[in-house]
Amino acid sequence: MKVLVASDKFKGTLSSAEVAAAVADGVRRVRPDAVVDTVLIADGGDGTLAAAVAAGFELVPVDTCGPTGEPVVSGYARRDDTAVVELADVSGLIRLPAGQLAPMTATTRGTGELIAAAVAAGCTRVILGIGGSASTDGGAGLLRALGVRLLDATGAEIPEGGEALAAVVTVELESLRKQFNGVEVVVACDVDNPLTGPSGAAATYGPQKGARPEQIDVLDRSLGHWAELVAPDLKNSPGAGAAGGVGFAALAVLGAELMPGIELVLELVGFQDRLAGVDLVVTGEGALDEQTLHGKAVAGVASAAKAAGIPVVAVCGTNRLDDGRLRAAGIDAVYALTDLEPDVSRCIADPVPLLQGLGERIGLR
C-alpha cells in the first residue's frame, strides 16, 4: 500500500508539514508495511515558500521590511531561473508586530524588495503568492521597491500605505521597466474581486485588516485615484482587488498572469510525478466548507488525484460539506477531528494525537 499525504495547513494550528507527519504516523502504526510519502502544499498564501523549499528549491534569505516598516528576515525560493515569493511571509498579517493592525499605512514594500533581490540575482520568472496581505496599498509599496516613484504635488515621495495614494500626482515607471525587461511574473490568485467598489479590495478585505467603515471609504477612493493614474481600464479586472490591490499592480505594471494558487503550487512540487504508484491520496485543511470547493488546496489535490484514477480521502478539523458536495469534488471520505473529540477547543489545543488517530482509521480502511 502506497499512500501520499498532501494536506494544506490547519490554519492557526498546524503547518502542512505537521499535519502530514501526524497522519503518516497514524497510518504506519496500523500498516507498518505501508509506504507513506508526504508533500507540502499550499494555495498560494502562507506555506507556499515552505512547500517550494521542501520540493527542492533553494531558500535565499533576504533582509527586508515588514508591513509597518520593521526589519524582517524573509527570503525567496529559487530553482534555476525561477523564484518563488510569498507575500504573507514578509508583508502579511502574520508579520504585524504584536498583531497590531495598520489598515491605512501597511505596505507591500517588503514583497517588492524580495522580487527585486530575485531579479538582481538573475531570476527571469517570478511566482508570487499573494494571500494573507496586511495592507490595502494597491501594490504601490511593492512597485516602489522595484524603482517606481510616486510623487505628490510638491514633487515629494508620498508616505507608505493605501491612504497616501490619494496624494499621488505623478507616477514614474521608467526604472522598473528597464530592470523588468524579459522578466515573467505569475501571480497565485484565488479571488476575482475588482480593485474598487462594493466587492473591491477595501470593502471586502479591509475589515479583516482593521479598517473601520469610514476608513474603508477613504481606502476605496484612494485606490480609485491610483487606478486612474496607472491603468483605469484594469481596475475592474477579476483579481485586481486581490491582496489589497496587489493583483492590480501586478496586472497593470508588471504585466503579470494570474493563475489559481493551488495549480501553481502543484506544478512547483511536481505533484503529478509524486502520484506514480500511489494507491491512496490523503488531503485536508482545518475546515471543509463551501470555500474549499472554490480554488482551495484540497479541491486542487482531489481533482488532480481523481484525474489519475486514485482514491482521495480528506482530514480536517470540522466538515461542513454533505456527501454529494464531497463526491462532486472528488473526495471519497472525510475524517474529522470532531469525529474523535466533539469539543472543538480541545481539537484546536491538541490536534496531533487526534490526527494520528485519524491516520490509523485511514490505514485500516
- Determine the CATH topology of the largest domain: Glycerate kinase, domain 2
The largest β sheet comes out as: 6 strands, mixed
Q: Provide the gyration radius in Å.
A: 21 Å
Assign an overall shape: elongated
Number of beta strands? 13
- Strands of the biggest beta sheet: in what spatial order? 3-4-5-6-9-10
Q: How many structural domains does the protein architecture include? A: 2
Helical fraction:
25-40%
Low-confidence stretches: none
Tell me the structural class: alpha/beta
Per CATH, which architecture of the largest domain? Answer: Alpha-Beta Complex
CATH superfamily of the largest domain: Glycerate kinase, domain 2
Task: Tell me the span between the first and last alpha carbons.
Answer: 11 Å
Mean pLDDT: 95
InterPro entries: Glyc_kinase_flavodox-like_fold, Glycerate_kinase, Glycerate_kinase_RE-like, Glycerate_kinase_sf
Organism: Kribbella lupini
GO molecular function: kinase activity
Protein name: Glycerate kinase
How is this fold's topology laid out?
Elements: E1 2-5, H1 16-30, E2 35-38, H2 48-54, E3 58-65, E4 71-79, E5 82-86, H3 87-91, H4 109-120, E6 125-129, H5 140-145, E7 149-151, E8 170-172, H6 174-179, E9 184-188, H7 201-205, H8 213-230, H9 246-252, E10 257-259, H10 261-268, H11 271-274, E11 280-288, H12 297-307, E12 312-319, H13 323-328, E13 333-336, H14 337-340, H15 344-349, H16 351-364
Parallel strand pairs: 1-2, 1-11, 5-6, 6-9, 9-10, 11-12, 12-13
Antiparallel strand pairs: 3-4, 4-5, 7-8
